[in-house]
Write a structure and sequence with these properties.
It is an enzyme of class 3 (hydrolase). The chain is mainly α. The chain has helices spanning about 20-30, 35-40, 45-65, 65-90, 95-110, 115, 125-140, 155-170, 185-200, 205-225.
Length: about 230
């Protein structure tokens, strides 16, 4: 959700790109004489809108039209611009969208030495190995492969993330025979739905159950890392 925007001239100003104009609209809305709602927001108050807009974008990607995808991408972009404008006017933060872009450019160039330098990475697995190595160099304070994994992710997404971490350090092997021999996402969806339905019938919380199991797996991963 974003606050409603009422079309108004921006002093006849001309902009190099539509993105520059949107940045100016954001500044106008949050500046003197702008929108009271926009002016009152904080990073914290906007979190729920960022989550909502992100899920709406996912819906558009999975089942929407071109127009819906275009709109929802714009809504997520607007959230990024909103946070950047807040930061540019917050003592102690004082960065804007150009600083955000500059940092991301440097990060992407640095994380892709096989494109922008003389490193070699011929496969997707090679790329991920380079990516992980560079992350370890960039974030030396992280002591576990789990550091930086957002625990607020939906349980299924979190499970996929943690299983990937566990597989890399040899805690689990997902290359063996599958306990549920499914070949398509449609079949997998039916199995997952049946599991959730069974949980409901027995008064169990499937989301909480998976999270509890994941806490145990994460504890096992951390214990394994300490023993290395």
């Amino acid at each position: 959700m974003t606050s409603p925007i009422i079309s108004a001239p921006l002093g006849g100003a001309e902009f190099a790109t539509e993105l520059d104009e949107l940045v100016a609209v954001m500044a106008r809305l949050r500046g003197p004489g702008g929108c009271p709602w926009d002016a009152e927001q904080s990073h914290e108050s906007l979190v729920k809108y960022l989550v909502e807009e992100t899920y709406e974008l996912i819906d558009a990607i999975e089942s929407g039209s071109r127009e819906e995808l275009l709109e929802e991408l714009g809504d997520v972009l607007y959230q990024v611009l909103f946070h950047a404008d807040l930061a540019s006017n917050t003592p102690g933060e004082e960065f804007d969208i150009n600083d955000v872009a500059a940092q991301m450019t440097a990060k992407m160039v640095g994380r892709h030495p096989h494109v922008f330098s003389d490193a070699s990475a011929d496969t997707s697995d090679d790329v991920m190995a380079v990516w992980d190595d560079l992350k370890r160099v960039e974030k030396p304070g992280r002591t576990s492969t789990l550091d930086g994994v957002p625990q607020a992710m939906p349980a299924l997404a979190l499970a996929d993330k943690i299983l990937g971490k566990a597989e890399k350090i040899g805690i689990v092997d997902i290359g063996g025979p599958a306990p549920f021999p499914v070949e398509t996402e449609a079949e997998l969806g039916s199995v997952l739905l049946a599991i959730v339905a069974s949980a409901r019938t027995q008064g169990l919380d499937a989301e909480r159950a998976l999270r509890n199991t994941l806490r145990g797996l994460q504890a096992e991963i951390r214990e394994s890392e300490v023993g290395e």
